Amino acid sequence: MVVNEKVKLAITVASLVAATVLFVAEYRRRRRKPTSSPSSCYLHSDKKPQFGFKRILADNSYSGFKHLKKVSSSSTDKPSNCHPYETEITALLENPRLDEFEFLRGEYSLEMSESYVWVETEFELEKLAETLAKQKVFAVDTEQHSLRSFLGFTALIQISTQEEDFLVDTIALHDAMSILRPVFSNPDICKVFHGADNDVLWLQRDFHIYVVNMFDTAKACEVLAKPQRSLAYLLESVCGVATNKLLQREDWRQRPLSEEMVRYARTDAHYLLYIANNMTAELRQLGIEDSSSPDDKFSFLLEACRRSNMICLQLYTKETEDFPGNAAASSLIYRHLNGHEDNSSISLDAKFQELVRELCAWRDLMARIHDESTRYVLSDQAVIALASKQPSTSEEIYDSVAQADLASESSPSAVICSHLDDVYQITQHKLGKLDVILPLVLDKCLGTDGTCPISVFNYSLLVNFNTKLTHRSAPKKNAHKNLKRFTRKTSRDLFVKKFSCKAPVYHNCRIYANDGRLLCYCDRRKLEWYMSRGLAKLVEEDPLAIMLLFEPKGRPEDEGNDFYIQSKKNICVGCGEGNHYLRYRIIPSCYRVHFPEHLKSHRSHDIVLLCVDCHEVAHAAAERYKKEVATEFGIPLFVRRVMDSKEAQGAECESTGESEDAGVSPLHLRTAAMALLRHGNRMPSSRREELLQTVKMYYGGRDITEEDLEKALLIGMSPHERRKLERKKGVSLKQENGTNDADANSFEEAPPEGDMNGESSVAGDDSGGDGAPELNDTQCNGNILHQQNSKLSLLGHGPHGKQVVEYLLKEYGEDGVRDFCQRWRKVFVDALHPRHLPGGWDVTHSGRRDFGEFSVYNPTKKVSTG
Ligand code: AMP
Ligand code: ZN
Ligand code: MN
């Protein structure tokens, strides 16, 4: 070991010295190189292997990646770009095939023989597919090339069976790789990988190959809590084989592969079956040692298996950003400024930053046009060098780049060399500002007399580019910032458009008593109700007002309910925003639906209009307070969604509250869904996975569709809006027009429904303002609603609301409920400091009112007051 280390050190030092000598020589050579810009692009003479590919699934345009669509799949309700084998993988997650974890049969020698099969023709690939179709298991690894390609491509796939090692030349066979799709997606064949996270995505990206049934030895390491998870570690500790992982970074486009590279590549797949076999034995053993019940003995194996197949569910996405090169530019600027806190003059910063952004945008576009990595086009340190030196001649530009990249033999890149003029113009600010540079450059390169060849990689860039950039209304200054603001504003506008009330909520029609005193403001429908029954006469046309022809019970102001005789503005009570608003329920419905009928009546007092921003603030505060309530009363809170009657029967409606982990807060749910819908395809996959988990938890762990996300968004919306949306989609929650006439005597304009629905009749779905529709006992035990409509969103905090209200009533009677309401009003006011609450609105609003004979709220009629 010690000797080994010394040798390694010596080699390192020697290589460093050699490298330095080479760099200096190279630098001198480059300095002598003429830097006048060539008239034509290097791609006319430099033939890169990928230009022979005919079928490109992930091109270099800014548009998203399209996943394989299975023709056989009959389900039309699946979203367009979902995992084509989601069902199969989910089935494996639910029913792992433990009996099949015999990775080796009969005689097996660890030795790697001299012979292997090089697969480079379609015929050979067909043979391989036939061979693999007969296997129960095979091992896989892939090698990528990423420097001279924008998205990278798979240059080699290594496949090993117990008998043979195959090296598949995926450059030669790029367009024929679909031949291997069936074996990879066959759930009866287990594919062993090590650290498959990237491999599964690469296989999707290049070949629409999806892995179903996988055992990942890195995941097994995780479950076994091995000290290391690298393949090199396993090779050494399990097989006693040393491997030089530095070869990983070789240029895998090279043909023929060197002997060393072949050996390395084979090693990466050859031993995997043996390693997997050992590890499953270990996992089983651990299960037996650890478990008390015999059924548990596979739990470690199960877990490794589950984690492996989770990887298969990952979907490849192209990274997107608000503006080309934006992310790279921001991180470069951030890193640079952090490194130079002390001196750099502020005046220089603005210019420096602008140049960094322009160069990053240019580099991004050039990389896409030429199918190169951005780091190949222009390295980060070269961007910094150019932006800080701001060279004024082409020669100076070339020298700055060469000097910044002394260590890299591919710099200055062919792109820089043949497009030096662009860089010159950018540094001289001759191309204009950021937002005009890109269309200009694209036109220069790929336009009618463009300098660069059009390829399968950049063609759709040309087609899609205009739509990507012409939407922008960004003024010249701070284009990227404006663009960001612009996109944020657009998505907010969309949100508002989708969910806010479409018409004024308050019609502010008036009802007078027959003595001329104002009874209330209300909506048009309520007026019509009285008019059509001859119970009132019209006294004013505009704004509409009627006078009742009978003697109503009581007068609002006599009861201290001034609130009801105030006209109400159609604005956000929080900030006064008048262009959009949605209804917000101050008392969360999960409690209110369980109030005695006559205490529910004051909905117009406790339902207000809020703009989306205030809505979010109020909603968040309410969610926090619910948690406090849960703690205070010792009645836990959770939401979960039950999908349909079948699932509902299986799903327990625990009332014990042990199920915190089976639920998710509505706020989390909504923000996760929102983020996924808005940015899902451009966020890092780890973040996406995290958010998906939140939403999945809500959906009982099953996989989710875009439609699910949209539904999750509605959590926190007003029930009225939600119903409207559901109606639009053809899903009706319940009978809307029941006999509500009994409500006629409740004199108030009720924002939640905007109509004359009595609360009693809407109780079942009266549930959204607080983000927590109910899952009440009837629904839970009887499945009544599930059977009525399987698509119904039945979610809530379980029995929390009901139990809290029952407790309040039992301990303190109705006063307890009134106090509880006051607490919620206070939470609302404290969170929002609303400046536009209607006159008469009051935290201590008593809710004591008289009810007409016909009113459902009439306590003498329905509920006996305690
Ligand atoms: P492996 O999983 O070790 O077979 O690596 C597969 C491919 O991932 C390689 O061909 C490389 O293109 C890429 N890769 C993995 N790790 C690195 C690394 N540390 N540096 C550069 N490329 C890497
Ligand atoms: Zn070019
Ligand atoms: Mn490898």
From TrEMBL:
<dbReference type="Pfam" id="PF00570">
    <property type="entry name" value="HRDC"/>
</dbReference>
<dbReference type="GO" id="GO:0006265">
    <property type="term" value="P:DNA topological change"/>
</dbReference>
<dbReference type="GO" id="GO:0000467">
    <property type="term" value="P:exonucleolytic trimming to generate mature 3'-end of 5.8S rRNA from tricistronic rRNA transcript (SSU-rRNA, 5.8S rRNA, LSU-rRNA)"/>
</dbReference>
<dbReference type="InterPro" id="IPR045092">
    <property type="entry name" value="Rrp6-like"/>
</dbReference>
<feature type="compositionally biased region" description="Polar residues">
    <location>
        <begin position="734"/>
        <end position="743"/>
    </location>
</feature>
<dbReference type="Pfam" id="PF01612">
    <property type="entry name" value="DNA_pol_A_exo1"/>
</dbReference>
<dbReference type="GO" id="GO:0071037">
    <property type="term" value="P:nuclear polyadenylation-dependent snRNA catabolic process"/>
</dbReference>
<feature type="region of interest" description="Disordered">
    <location>
        <begin position="724"/>
        <end position="781"/>
    </location>
</feature>
<dbReference type="InterPro" id="IPR010997">
    <property type="entry name" value="HRDC-like_sf"/>
</dbReference>
<dbReference type="InterPro" id="IPR036397">
    <property type="entry name" value="RNaseH_sf"/>
</dbReference>
<dbReference type="InterPro" id="IPR012337">
    <property type="entry name" value="RNaseH-like_sf"/>
</dbReference>
<dbReference type="GO" id="GO:0071036">
    <property type="term" value="P:nuclear polyadenylation-dependent snoRNA catabolic process"/>
</dbReference>
<dbReference type="InterPro" id="IPR002121">
    <property type="entry name" value="HRDC_dom"/>
</dbReference>
<feature type="transmembrane region" description="Helical">
    <location>
        <begin position="6"/>
        <end position="25"/>
    </location>
</feature>
<dbReference type="GO" id="GO:0071051">
    <property type="term" value="P:poly(A)-dependent snoRNA 3'-end processing"/>
</dbReference>
<dbReference type="GO" id="GO:0005730">
    <property type="term" value="C:nucleolus"/>
</dbReference>
<dbReference type="GO" id="GO:0000176">
    <property type="term" value="C:nuclear exosome (RNase complex)"/>
</dbReference>
<dbReference type="GO" id="GO:0000166">
    <property type="term" value="F:nucleotide binding"/>
</dbReference>
<dbReference type="GO" id="GO:0071038">
    <property type="term" value="P:TRAMP-dependent tRNA surveillance pathway"/>
</dbReference>
<feature type="domain" description="HRDC">
    <location>
        <begin position="349"/>
        <end position="430"/>
    </location>
</feature>
<dbReference type="GO" id="GO:0071039">
    <property type="term" value="P:nuclear polyadenylation-dependent CUT catabolic process"/>
</dbReference>
<keyword id="KW-0812">Transmembrane</keyword>
<protein>
    <recommendedName>
        <fullName>HRDC domain-containing protein</fullName>
    </recommendedName>
</protein>
<dbReference type="GO" id="GO:0071044">
    <property type="term" value="P:histone mRNA catabolic process"/>
</dbReference>
<keyword id="KW-0472">Membrane</keyword>
<dbReference type="InterPro" id="IPR018126">
    <property type="entry name" value="SASP_alpha/beta-type_CS"/>
</dbReference>
<dbReference type="GO" id="GO:0000175">
    <property type="term" value="F:3'-5'-RNA exonuclease activity"/>
</dbReference>
<dbReference type="GO" id="GO:0003690">
    <property type="term" value="F:double-stranded DNA binding"/>
</dbReference>
<dbReference type="GO" id="GO:0003727">
    <property type="term" value="F:single-stranded RNA binding"/>
</dbReference>
<dbReference type="GO" id="GO:0071035">
    <property type="term" value="P:nuclear polyadenylation-dependent rRNA catabolic process"/>
</dbReference>
<dbReference type="InterPro" id="IPR002562">
    <property type="entry name" value="3'-5'_exonuclease_dom"/>
</dbReference>
<dbReference type="InterPro" id="IPR044876">
    <property type="entry name" value="HRDC_dom_sf"/>
</dbReference>
<keyword id="KW-1133">Transmembrane helix</keyword>
<dbReference type="GO" id="GO:0071040">
    <property type="term" value="P:nuclear polyadenylation-dependent antisense transcript catabolic process"/>
</dbReference>
